[in-house]
Structure formats: structure tokens, C-alpha cells
Specification:
Helices cover about 10% and strands about 30% of the residues. By secondary structure, the chain is of the alpha+beta class.
Length: about 120
């Protein structure tokens, strides 16, 4: 990977916005470090750093709902990534929704579930 001088935070992380390449829907936001970004570039599928579990994870490793990377862009400040993907499987959110952004500011769910999280994750 070319030295892009990306601006990682004090924990070595950079936010990554994941967007559907076909309809521009924002699917999720997660954090990457340099190693997970490199893995994403090498494999062509999204990989992230979990702040809560303190480990790497591949999107879809449990559900099978992987994200095939089509392009990776960074913003003008070099402190946020925009990753355009083909979302394989019905959704990106672990709750069963297509997008993690399904609740409005009033707390109303504006989009329904597209798969059963209980069935997929055996919870």
C-alpha cells in the first residue's frame, strides 16, 4: 500500500463508512487500523478492528454476509475512509437490518429487518 499519510486517531484507528456501490445506501460505520485496511486491500473484502473485542474481524465471517470492495476513498482531511462495496447477503447490520442506520432521531425504526439475527447468529 502506498504511503497515503492517512490520519489515524491516538489509538491507531480511522473511521470507515461502508456504502453500497449500486444505490449509495450507507450500510455501516466501523473502525480500521493500518493492518485491517491492508487486509481489506489484499483480500477485496472488508476487515475491521473491533474496539470492544480488541481483535480483527472480517465482515460476514459469522453470517456469510460479506462485503466485496469495489473502491476505497479517503476524505480531504485524510481522517475518514469511504469504502464502496457489494453487500452479499441480505444485510450488513448484526440486528437483522440491511443498514445499521434504521432508527430516526425520535427513536422510531424507519426500516424493518431483512433477516433473522437470531437464526443467523444463533442467539
Amino acid at each position: 500500500m502506498k504511503n497515503l499519510d492517512l490520519k489515524y486517531d491516538s489509538n491507531g484507528l480511522i473511521p470507515a463508512i461502508i456504502q453500497d456501490t449500486e444505490n449509495n445506501e450507507v450500510l455501516m460505520m466501523a473502525y480500521m487500523n493500518e493492518a485491517s485496511l491492508q487486509k481489506t486491500i489484499e483480500t477485496g473484502y472488508t476487515h475491521f478492528w473491533s474496539r470492544s473485542r480488541q481483535k480483527f474481524w472480517k465482515k460476514g465471517e459469522t453470517s456469510g454476509h460479506v462485503q466485496e470492495v469495489k473502491s476505497i476513498l479517503y476524505d480531504c482531511d485524510k481522517d475518514t475512509l469511504l469504502i464502496k462495496v457489494i453487500q452479499h447477503g441480505p444485510g450488513a447490520c448484526h440486528t437483522g437490518h440491511r443498514s445499521c442506520f434504521f432508527t430516526d432521531i425520535e427513536g422510531k425504526e424507519i426500516k424493518g429487518k431483512v433477516f433473522s439475527a437470531e437464526d443467523v447468529y444463533k442467539k
